[in-house]
Every structure is written in C-alpha cells, then in structure tokens.
Predict the 3D structure of the following.
Amino acid sequence: MKNAIFTHYFEEIFKVILLFALASSMAFSESLLAADMPCVKEICIGDGLDKLRGIKFQPVNPSRVERVSKRKQADRAEMYGGFQGTQPPAFLMLAEFDENSLDEIAKIKVACHPYNQLEGAYVSESGHKTNIQIALWPNKTGEMKWLVKGISRAYKGLESRGESDQLIQDLREKYAKWDMGKVGQPKSGSAGMLLVPLKEPILTLILAPTAEMIQADMYKKNPLCKPTKRTNLD
C-alpha cells in the first residue's frame, strides 16, 4: 500500500527544488539530465521504465479506486492524453504503479500536466522500504519520456543509536556530491540528496527538473490534451 508519509515528503521536497529549477538558466540538452546521477542498488534517478522491470513492487489494489472522489477521477482522466471521457486504468486513478502495470504505462506517451507522477513501493534485499516516483516529462522538442524523479528509502530495524549514527555517516559519504545540506540546491537537470537523521533514517534522492520539464505549455501543445476550461468572470 502506498505510504502517505513518503508521498507527502516527496511532494514537499519537490516544491522546494522546483523553485530553484525555475530560476536556473542551465541549458536543456536532448539527453535531458546530467550524466552522473545518484542510485540505490536497484535504480538510479533519471532511469527509464526498463530499469524498473524485475523489481518486486507491491501490487496496486484496484478496489481502492472506489475511494477516489469523482473530482479526482476527472482530474486524473485529464492528466494523460487520450483518456478524456473514458475511465483510465486503476493504477492511473490511484497514481500508483507495480511491475504488472509497466507495459501499460509504457503505452502512455502524453501527459497534459507536469505533476503527473506515479508512485511504486518495494522492500529492498536488506529489508528497507523504498518508494519510487516516476513522471512523464518532455524533452526540448516536446517528446515525452517516463523518468525516475524520486527515490525515498526508510531504514528501519536498527538495533542501536550507534548503528543508526554509522548508517547516517555511510550515507552522507556515499551521496556526498549530491548532499543538499552541504552543496546546496541541485542545478536543473541534476539531482539532490536529503537525509533525515532520525533513529530510523530516511534517505531521499530527487531530480531537479529542467525548465522545459515543468512548463505547462510544453504539455498543452499536444492535441490529445484538453484545453483548460475558462470560467466567465462576469
């Protein structure tokens, strides 16, 4: 089941990075992203859908769609080109994915808004709960591609404060070049790392999008995207 705390944490961090990305003047290349990206064992920031295959994600529960409000269902239907007026798949309604939905996700080529992320969760070989966020983002020509935009991992079951402190030190050393606490906000097209140094630490790796990735106009260009309805001001 999707972890609401992780999701909120992702969203708040992304908002902060988004502000800095908008102010960045870094050129937008066809490759979209910096060559050097942070990773956990299974996946890296900036990876495509193919790298997600083979990970045992927690299954999406389609029955939970019944709890999604009609307004949110309508919003999700308009989020991806081609679903207006139809019922999108359950995983889109829930903004979640698992290994069984990857083939269907790969067929979705158009998003109509930059905040179109889906989230999947799995447990690593060492037993650490890990959440992955993917989003459909455009390149300079408007062609869209699914990318891993966020990775969050919670380290639970540590037996002592000393073990926790050592883990925090090891994580800071491993991700030193992306540590936002030391090097500041990442440039657009690169990545940042935040570490919550609790008794059970939380590691977050997140992509700083380029300006093109987050410009609403880049999404609305596609004819599959429904024009925004305007309310009469009078």
Summary: The CA atoms of residues 13 and 107 lie 29 Å apart. The radius of gyration is 18 Å. The chain is about 30% helix and 15% strand. Residues 4-23 form the longest helix (20 residues).
